[in-house]
Amino acid sequence: MKSPSSFDFSFVRKLFPGVVGNYLAKLGIVLNLVDPKCGGCVIVGVRGTGKSLLLKSLKTYLSYTREKFVEIPSHAREENLLSGLDLEKTLEKGEPQYIEGLLERARGGYVLLDDLHLLRDDVQAIIFENLHNYCLITTINSEDGEVSPHYLDKIGLCAPMEQLSDRRELFRSSLTSNVDSSTDELKRRIGLARGLIKSYKVEHHLWDYLTERALSEGVRTHRAEIFLFFAGRALAGLLMHKSLQEQIFDYVAPLVFSHRKSQKNERTEEHKNPKTKKENDKEREREDRDQRPHQAENQNESKRGEQKFQGEERQKRLGETESRSNERPIEELIPSSSKEEIFRIGAFSEIRKILLPKNRKLTKSAGRRSRAKTLRRGYKLRSLPFAKDREIDIYETLKKASMYQKMRGSGERIVIKREDLCSKERGGKESQLLLFVVDASGSQGVKRRMEAVKGAIFSLLIDAYKKRDKVALIIFRKFGAELLLPPTQSVQLAHRTLKNIITGGNTPLSAGLFEAYRLIKKYHYRNPGSKVILILLTDGKTNIPLKKAEDPLKEVSSICSTLSKLPYVYPLVIDTEIKSDLLRMDLARDIAKWLGAKYYELEALSGEGLINLIRTYQQIL
Amino acid sequence: MNFPFTAIVDQEEMKLGLILNVIDPSIGGLLIMGEKGTGKSTTVRALAELLPEIEVVKGCRFNCSIKGPFCVECEERLNRGDTLEIEFKKMEVVELPLGVTEDRVLGTLDLEYALTMGKRKFEPGLLARANQNFLYIDEVNLLEDHIVDLLLDSAAMGMNRVEREGLSFYHPARFILVGSMNPEEGELRPQFLDRFGLCVEIKAIVDKEKRKEVLKRRIQFDLDKEGFLKAWYDEQERLKERILTAKRLWHEIEVSDEILEKIVSLTAELSLDGHRGDIVLLKASKAYASFEGDKELKTSHIKKILAMALRHRLKRLPFEDPKEEVKKLYEITQLL
User: Fold this and answer.
1) How confident is the prediction for chain A on average, in pLDDT?
2) Contact A430/B at CB under 8 A
3) pLDDT tens digits for B164-204?
4) pLDDT (tens digit, 9 = 90+) per residue, B112-122?
5) What residues make up the domain containing A240?
6) Which of A87, A413, A491 sits opposite B116 (nearest CB)?
């Protein structure tokens, strides 16, 4: 596919030669080097794709060109970021000694931050609160954490990191030296671009173009076209253009829109085009029959078709008939010969799935019920001996020191020694997560099961007002499990999501449990100290394994034993089998044993029984 | 340099909600419910920039107003017979970040002073900085409960009292509370919801022409701040004058018994809990009348303010569609 434009992107191939391929991510960073008004860049990818390596290359470049930057380690805490008193030095010298916070030092420069998702919530809050002071270049590993879409929107650009098929290539590349002639070349180019962009005049039709572009992409946030403008302008500078042309913005559009389109928007797009929806449904049905695991691919394809349909008019106007305009710039960046460098357009929709799962809920651990021993928050519980990672209890420290003042001959100044230092233990109250894992297969009693669960979720959420608990729902049916309701307190969200739950199909119990395991691990990582009450509703008649040819029940048993080892998980199994049935198998009882769970039969629980049961259980914890 | 308030396109309800709070701060703040990237924090900052400087006691660490009430330190100075001098300060938007600690909100023992002088002294927190300013909380629904409680206490009393770590201290904390939230990311506790005087809903603009204007102005501002501010100077001054006049005159707005009755019957119709709804509706309507340059409160003023003042106070059944409430409100408006 030959692009009609004659832009010369060959320089992109020479960027950061220490990292193979990934031109879009590199471009996202370099645009920010040209103009920090591009709003920073977040690189998203799985483990081992060279995200950190890319940041390292950037660091090498910034050190070489003597630009202002700071690196923030992912274990940074509030006191590292903001300026404050250096307690140890102060005690040593007897007069106040200050440390300049990392963010203070970053003012007007670049902040390099690997693994944004690993930062604690309060630290993330500080970083984003001060975002206007610096340009943030950061990475997210999509596998082990999440970042609020609210924050993501504040970062100008977003690029995916691609898995390279040839690992040797990656290895070889990490061995090459970091500073070479290409560094000087880049520096020169950026210098020129910085000068050039100031000379551009903005033509009137450009405003129309940018706005239309954002609207047609279905983004709502106004930041989209603002960053689109600056990114495009920076690229024009890098390409040494004499003026700003409309086409330039097509090349940076993926960087701007990928993290701002929510899946919700995509769904409404689907509804707008009933034909596609029907096709999708048909496809799904077919898949169910054929048991083909290519669902995602097919959907992607039909979505592409649909977008093509929607974008047609615009593209005609641009005098272009080829495919989506998104694809063009990428095509351009890639030498057609080397296969492993080919950029999958699918990666962008993956970013969306990863970063912006539908109806996503931010997780926070502050709540009212179970006591937690977090370090910094909540009210003081008691004093403890000093430890480096604990907060200093000043009052206790001074009190202790005061006893020895005469002995120490302090004179005018109070003398505090290391042994006086005390720490604080704080107690807030942590919330519980009530995680429902529900069999939505077509087996007997599915209707009753779902009604009981919906009823329970709704009434528990009314409580959530007061108790600040969160509720989540995973259902499993057909060939997989789905996180239908991510951990939430929002009645509104639950209301919308639970209105229509589709039931029927096989019983992939292990998929459901595995999904639960993943959610629990993720949730607990971000909310250390929180408890998870796992409520499994099933008859245990599993018939679809996760791995092909595996015995489904054996698989269930092994996941159960993994789950039972998590000390913060409190499982409950509600058996939904109809006990008067001649073929009763009592499998759920075994599952409860494997999980180390309390076991109840749904039949025995009348009306409000399930809710009361859960409430009682909560109280015991 | 902040984006000029008058150059903000559309979002009239949010702008009005903020202005009314400036005219009469006892309205009790504004909650902005809406999507990301719609200029919530920009608007708040822009308004702070537009307003005149605040008068504070010179050298006071707690932004005490020269007219009082005073903090412990200013009171001590007065008791000693010192005269308090005036100092002018630019209005500020103090942001309360998520995950903030109690110490940072309330203030705490001044460590430096304690270590070097061996005496206790109070170190001001965010509430001190927020005194006579805006206190802005982004994603207020995700704020931790114990922090919310602290804010509720201080906001209700207009005073921050600290009794901890052997310290006993108080200082005035009168701020315009502005919170923003996306309701789909979790609800706000009803007590806290009710505490916000007004509540507006805000959406991204999808009208192409307006949206284009948003972009254009923002980029023009980013590229040439001084030039842009100059171009909007007159407009800014006009609005500032209008707000200040309204602030001077709002308490002179005449309210007839008939109007009062209308307000009461409205809130009775909606069976609201408590009286805050009535009071806020009255106050905000008066502020609006004053802003419009009117001398007496009219039905049209109340109509305009009704949704803002009551939308977050409606009793909602747990699973009622939120859209239903809005419908209810508009039906009521028709009764006026």
Assistant:
1) 74
2) no
3) 766 788 999 999 999 998 876 767 777 778 889 999 999 99
4) 676 666 677 88
5) 10-257
6) A413
Check if the interface score ipTM surpasses 0.90.
no
Residues whose CB is less than 8 angstroms from the CB of residue B43 and which lie 6 or more positions away in sequence, other chains included:
B5, B8, B11, B14, B15, B18
Q: How far is CA A53 from CA A74, A142, A183, A489, A528, in A?
A: 15, 17, 16, 39, 29
Q: Tell me what pLDDT residue A327 has.
A: 38
Closest CA to A295 of A284, A306, A305, A285: A284
- Note whether B176 and B294 are same-domain residues: no
Closest Cβ–Cβ partner in B144, B165, B211 for A394: B165
User: What is the longest distance spanned by two Cα atoms in chain B?
Assistant: 67
Tokens of A361: 């809920």
Closest CA to A508 of A440, A445, A406, A453: A440
Q: How many domains does chain B have?
A: 2
B184 and B257 share one domain? no
Task: Band the pLDDT of B14: cuts 50, 70, 90.
Answer: very high
Alpha helices in A65-101, H assignment, sequence order: 78-81, 87-93
Are A226 and B184 in contact (CB < 8 Å)? Answer: no
Would you give the distance in Å from CA A504 to the centre of its chain? 31
The helix/strand/coil state of A615 is: helix
pLDDT at A295: 40
Token pair listed for A527? 């909310």
Residue holding tokens 């002088």?
A: B117
Specify if A346 maps to a domain: no
Of chain A, the percentage scoring pLDDT greater than 90 comes to 21
Whether residue A90 is found in the same domain as residue A196? yes
Total domains, chain A: 4
Answer yes or no: is A329 within a domain. no
Q: Do B219 and A202 touch (CB under 8 A)?
A: yes
A621 secondary structure, DSSP code: -
Tokens for A571, please give them.
């499982």
Segment A288-325, tens digit of pLDDT: 444 444 443 444 444 434 443 343 333 333 333 333 33
B29-63: b (≥16 Cβ within 10 Å) or e: bbbbbbbbbbbbbbbbbbbbbbbeebbbbeebbbb
* C-alpha A431 chain-centroid distance: 21
Query: In terms of domains, do B177 and B269 share one?
Result: no
| Residue found by looking up tokens 């946030």 in the block | A221
Domain membership flag for residue B228 = no
Using the structure block, give the residue that is written with the tokens 């409309």: A246
Rounded to whole angstroms, the maximal C-alpha distance in chain A is 89
CA A64 to chain centroid, in Å, comes to 32
Distance of residue B185 Cα from the nearest chain A Cα, in angstroms: 5
Q: Indicate which CATH number applies to the domain containing A15.
A: 3.40.50.300
Assign A501 a pLDDT band (cuts: 50, 70, 90): confident
Q: Which structural domain range is residue B192 located in?
A: 5-202
| Catalytically annotated residues of B | 276
In this structure, the answer to whether residues B185 and B260 fall within a common structural domain is no
Backbone angles phi, psi at A140, to 5 degrees: -130, 130
Residue A344 lies in a domain: no
pLDDT at position A369, please? 35
Pull the structure tokens for residue A402. Answer: 């005061």
Within a domain: residue A227? yes
Q: Which of A412, A429, A446 is the last residue of a domain?
A: A429
Output the CA–CA distances (angstroms, integers) from residue A577 to A448, A450, A506, A573, in the order listed: 11, 14, 15, 12
Mutate to test the interface with A, among B115, B149, B165 (most CBs of A within 10 A): B115
**Are A377 and B99 inside 8 Å of each other by CB?**
yes
Identity of the residue in A123, A153, A364 whose CB atom sits nearest the CB atom of B36: A153
Q: State whether the Cα torsion A240-A242-A244-A245 is positive or negative.
A: negative
Lookup: tokens for B114 = 């304690």
Q: Are residues A401 and A496 in the same domain?
A: no
pLDDT tens digit string along A14-69?
Answer: 888 888 788 889 999 999 999 999 999 999 988 778 888 899 999 999 999 999 99
Same-domain status, B169 and B306: no
3-class DSSP state for residue B57?
strand
